[in-house]
Every structure is written in structure tokens, then in C-alpha cells.
Amino acid sequence: MNPRLHALPNGVRVVCDPTPELQTLALSVVAGRGARAEAPGQSGWAHLLEHMVFKGAGARSARDIVEAIEAEGGSVNAATGYERTSFQVRALKGGLKLGLEVVGDLVQRPTIDPAELDREKGVIAQEIAEAADTPDDLVFDLAQSSAFAGQPLGRPILGTVKSLASAKRDTLEAFRAGLYAAPGLVVSASGAVDEDELLASVEAVFGSADGTMLPEPAPAAFAGGLKTRARALEQSHLVFLLPGEGARSRGYYVQRIFAEALGGGMASRLFQEAREKRGLAYSIDAYSETYGDTGVLGIYAGCAAEDAAALAGVCAGQVRALAEAIEPTELARAKAQLKAHMFMALESPLARAEGLAGQILLFGRPLSPAEMAQGIDEVTAADIRAYGERLLSQRRCAGAVLGPKRALGAAEAFGRALF
């Protein structure tokens, strides 16, 4: 059965994706705003709010929330991204109504106790410190802050201790009202769900929801820049970013295929050239990161400090070579791998529910597997070349290197070799 989309009068959208033969279901309630909607002084508030709603909501305490879900064999979780905030429930067949009631309280009626708020700020301060102590987390944050300097996309989702300190109960509640406003909510259910039960339950839980969404974030601009940080590590961590396409762009699938051919698997150019042929890195890959209006093509590598500059040159050389031409067999393999990644994920009810909610927020409708496959199949070698020309013609890159001092020159080496 194809997913069916409905809308309540208050703007809450509902998508039902039933698979009757399953004994489990997944529910996602997704708000179409995230860390990108924060004002500069509110950095980290979306993530803080996601934590706080689990401290008590409606008539349930923090313990009551998890016990209610787990008593029925389910689990509840949440995630904050730059462009959306997601609340997820996985449950046995028959657990839909309870899951919706619990998440409805989390989104609409959190307690936000001031004492709990102070304690949770301390917990997140530890989370921030942990990320700073984790090299392969920190290097991505450094690169992101270079690529989108001075913009919401360049600020860490966790925020800072200083920006979190300014959040009080009343200001965080006002922020919640805009972040989780009804017109931006999508309720998505997949697996052992009944459409009539879903619609009735969503109407009962969210039918009276209201609010005005936080403003749409300003368009992002790839700034570029390099950041290095010396650390006494055994391995150097390198991230290179190039300006790319957004999820709504016609070049979305082109970028995904370019990244796949460049460094998506063991047959990719970077793996074969940098790891297998030259032995410069144990870990290396390329990836496509997309937002609604923009995106990046990224490369990550971990290597010995003495190999960092040479590895940066190899990465740049492989980007240039792929931008000039892609072999027919290489293009076909990248398409097959991309389809496999996308379609294997659809075997999970939670991934389907999350994916459908994201599609509703981006495109206003679900995308069928056939439509996605067609988008991949239509990409040509000429499209890859045109994408490569756009990539290089902007003559901008962002990067970060974290490790021993002798590795830090790799950041500039990548840009010199590429341009």
C-alpha cells in the first residue's frame, strides 16, 4: 500500500504507511524546525528543549514517560538536527495510541521545571566537553564552523555553556511554542498501523494544537575557510568540504552519486588510491550532506601525521579527476550502491517513518521508491562533469585538521592542490 497523506485543519500533517503483516510499528512526530531556527544567543536551545521535555510532560514524570512506553514493549527517543526535531517511538502492534499520547505530551505540555533545567544544563555541558574530547567529532564541528561561519549552520547543535545559561523556563517555553508549532508538525507512522486508528488518535492528541512557527532560516552561504588544532594524538583527522547542492536541488542525486564514486565504498577512487595503492590512510570516505537549500561534498580521513599533506594532495587530485570524467562502469556501480543504501534503509519501519516525514517537510508529499530510483537512473556522465565544473569553479573549500603539529599543513595543501 502506498503511503497516504492527510492534514488536520490546524496544519498538522499525517502520513500513514501500513504494512499489516508486521507485528511492530514506528511512530515519528517531526517538527520542521531545528537548531537552524535559533537566534545567535539561543545556540543549543533546540537540543536543550529536546532533553527537557523528557524530564516531565503532561501528568507524567520523567520515569513515568519511559515506563509507560517500555511496559508495552516499546522504546522512545528523540533527535535534534539543524532543520528538524524528531520524536520517535518503536512499539509492538497495538502500541500506536499510547505512543501518540506520550509524544503529544512531550511536544505540547512539557513541565520544564527550573531546578531540572539547571541540572540538565550541567549534563549538556558534560556532553559538550565529551564532544570536544572526541577527535572524530570535534574535527567535523571545526569544518562545519568554517564552511558556514557566522551562520546558524556554522554553530554546533549542542550550543555552548554560555548560550545555554541564558535559557530560563519562560523563554524556553516561548521558544518551544514556535519550534513545535502545529503547522510545522508531521506525524508519520509505519508498520503495523491502521489508518483510521491513526487519524482518530492524531485528531484527539494534536487536533487542538496551535502556534506560529519560528521564521524560516535565512538562506545559507558557503563561506569556506580552514581550521587547525594541534593535539597530541596517535592519528591525524582530516575533513575537507566543498560547496554543494541542497536536498531540493535538481543536482541532489548527482552529488550523491559523485560522493559515492569518490569515496563511498571499497571500490571508490579514494579507497583504492589512498588506502589500497598508497597506504596513506586506514580510514577514508566521501559523503554528501544536504539541507533544504544547500549542501556540502565532504571527505573524511584518518592518517599518520607524516602522511597528512600527501593524503590531502591525493584527495584533491581524485576530486579533480572525477570532475573531468567518470567511467561508465563506475557510474553504474555508484548508482547501484546508492539505490542499495536508500532501499535497504526502507526495510526498517522507523527509517520509513522518519524518511516520509522528511519528504513531507521538504517536498510536501511522499516520494515513492520508483521515483527515487528514476532520479538516480537519470543521472548521466555529462551531469557528473557539469557538477564537477560547478564544484571547482567556485574556488572555495573549507577544512579542518586535528592532530600533531606536523599534520596541520594538510588543510592548506588540499586547497592548493585542488585549485
Tag the structure with descriptive keywords.
419 residues; globular; 5-stranded mixed beta sheet; Cytochrome Bc1 Complex, Chain A, domain 1; alpha+beta; 46% helix; 16 helices
Secondary structure category: alpha+beta
Write out the strand line-up for the largest beta sheet, numbering strands in chain order. Answer: 1-2-8-3-7-6
- Share of helix, binned: 40-55%
Q: What is the multimeric organization of the chains shown?
A: single chain
- The CATH class name of the largest domain reads Alpha Beta
| Terminal-residue CA separation | 50 Å
Order of helices and strands: EEEHEEHEEHHHHHEHEEHHEEHHHHHEH
- Could you tell me the number of beta strands? 13
Which helices and strands, and how do they pair?
Elements: E1 4-7, E2 13-18, E3 24-31, H1 45-53, E4 56-57, E5 60-61, H2 62-70, E6 75-80, E7 85-92, H3 96-108, H4 114-132, H5 135-147, H6 161-165, H7 169-179, E8 185-191, H8 195-206, E9 225-230, E10 236-244, H9 252-263, H10 269-277, E11 283-290, E12 295-303, H11 308-324, H12 328-345, H13 349-363, H14 369-377, H15 381-393, E13 398-403, H16 410-418
Parallel strand pairs: 2-8, 9-13
Antiparallel strand pairs: 1-2, 3-7, 3-8, 4-5, 6-7, 10-12, 10-13, 11-12
